[in-house]
Q: What sequence folds into this?
């Protein structure tokens, strides 16, 4: 096992050779293992059983978010979004971004701990900071593409109505100063649909979590309507 | 104006006599006022215009939550719930509560600041810590009553389907150790309906916010179906 998990297993949980416990690999598998060597840095286990722990949602759910100046708010978001359930998190570098760099490893550590806390076996993929235009190109062929901008131009529809449950979906959440007009045009041209999350005025991180909750709750309601 | 708001107005924002600005009263009214006396502790304003700023949701939405040991998590919840939109927050004293006391004033301060940040005019009512049984009695005649317990007894239905938009609604969210069997029975006997928030395993504060998001998003979807 990796050093940090070995230490947790041997020093904190005080497991002894022969003990059985469960571990996840972050890729959807849950393993029942037996401790063979209680080395605090390189513990060895043998696999007794493994089973796949599927997601309880269908289709990939990706959040692409312009990070806030305050890094705590981003860590909070990654923690909560991992608990609620997401597949990917992309920090977006936008024209009006308040933060141009992020510590990817810190966000990943937060995601690992939230994954374990919420008994999931899959780790959301945490990307490096990605320039807006590169992101748009990369997701051009994604089926469900949304941009939650704040310009009240009468074109935006509610995400809860637009989202098709089961479809791989990604939503762009802008910085406090919103997306630039050029960014909005670029996204629309690439097939992103303009959406609103409702009438509340939300901070960036609250908007991102609300979008993710919308995917899940609209999914619960629409599947019940079948 | 109260001392803390006077200081903010005069010292931080550096308003001068004659300046026009907007203030809210926490009871649903937005006032345009003119500064008359720039006293840093007792600033005086005259009201130029007032208008009501109605909620964008219908029916009262109340969260009753067993507070977590970590007070930061409760402050975070009150901040986010105020942004998203709620009418009342009741800290519940349950059998397995990890925290038996709360600083109501601290939570109220958080709510005031989130109200201003999100441009709302109504302040959610933050209650004192309330014993579970007293809460149940007090809300006996509330129309929409839900308890989100974690016992998978086949009786729980999805909150998203059970909630009737527009109806005054309250949901009980338990401590990490869940409600006791006695508490669940007491709530069911009083007409609370047992609900689940979905398949995610959520921390207390995440569950409470998810319940509130469910009210709003189910409201958006159901009103669009009319």
A:
């Amino acid at each position: 096992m990796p050093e940090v998990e070995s230490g947790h297993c041997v020093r904190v949980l005080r497991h002894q050779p022969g003990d059985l416990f469960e571990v996840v690999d972050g890729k959807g598998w849950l393993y029942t293992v037996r401790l063979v060597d209680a080395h605090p840095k390189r513990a060895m286990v043998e696999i007794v059983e493994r089973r796949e722990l599927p997601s309880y949602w269908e289709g990939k759910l990706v959040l692409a978010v312009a990070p806030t100046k305050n890094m705590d708010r981003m860590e909070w978001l990654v923690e909560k979004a991992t608990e609620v359930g997401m597949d990917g998190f992309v920090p977006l570098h936008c024209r009006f971004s308040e933060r141009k760099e992020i510590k990817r490893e810190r966000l990943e550590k937060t995601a690992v701990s939230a994954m374990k806390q919420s008994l999931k076996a899959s780790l959301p993929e945490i990307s490096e900071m990605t320039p807006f235009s590169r992101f748009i190109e990369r997701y051009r062929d994604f089926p469900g593409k949304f941009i939650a901008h704040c310009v009240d131009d009468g074109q935006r529809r509610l995400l809860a109505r637009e989202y098709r449950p089961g479809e791989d979906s990604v939503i762009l959440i802008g910085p406090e100063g919103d997306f630039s007009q050029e960014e909005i045009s670029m996204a629309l041209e690439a097939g992103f649909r303009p959406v609103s999350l409702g009438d509340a005025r939300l901070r960036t991180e609250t908007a991102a979590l609300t979008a993710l909750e919308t995917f899940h709750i609209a999914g619960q309601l629409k599947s019940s309507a079948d």
Q: What stands out?
A: Residues 204-225 of chain A form the longest helix (22 residues). Chain A has two domains: 3-52, 61-225. Chain A has seven helices and eleven strands. The mean pLDDT of chain A is 93.
